[in-house]
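job 3f2a | input accepted
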Amino acid sequence: MLKNLFKIAYRSLIKKKVYSLINIVGLSIGAASTLLIFLYVQRELSYDEFYTDTDRLYRVAVDRQYPDRLANFAMIPGGWSQVFVEEIPEIEKSVRIAGFPDFASVFQYKDLSFQERYIFFADSNFFDVLDFKLLKGDPATVLIHPNTLILTESMATKYFGDEDPIGKQIKVDSTHNEVVGVMQDIPSNSHFKIDFLSSYANVEFMVNPSYYISSSYTYIKLVKDSSPKSAELKIPSLVEKYAAGEIERDLGIS
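job 3f2a | predicted structure (254 res):
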């Protein structure tokens, strides 16, 4: 019986070739589109879900209120990172990350020279808060000293091939930097795009904390089972405590 059904279907397809072709092509396009949409949505929902404690990690942003408008910033003043840990019980850890990918730097190693944009600067506890895998180097010390670099696997291969990059010198613009670590490539489903990582101590104006001049992205890790809303509600009083005096002193306004 099944054989007869196939015969009937085949004869129908042959008899109405144009109609059958339109239906088959339409069905194929519909199935392919559905699959592509599913894969796209699946990828979008997977962003930044690879962290061990992804439910406890947050980036702090600023809604800055002006008399006539509200402005939103992903970067916040660098001084807040330590304040969050000291003043808000719900926050266990905090790390600052800064970078300027709109401006390229020249990286040189021997005869190799490339313009690179994705160099970022981070606090020494970067690998403690965000658990990217460090393949070479000590995660507790690689981001302590200035004029040092951590490379991703891809960049290590690009500049050094099969050589061990640890201890080698890369000239960044006019400054020599020692390679002290190699980290796993950042997954593509991450909002981070990092090729090189260096110590926050490298950027002089970031070392001195400010509470109103935005300078870095700040990521916090909450204490287990803590409420992000509860932590957020404690921030406005801290703005008054830490930023108000600095704003009045520097800008002459309340």
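job 3f2a | The CA atoms of residues 107 and 225 lie 44 Å apart.
job 3f2a | closed
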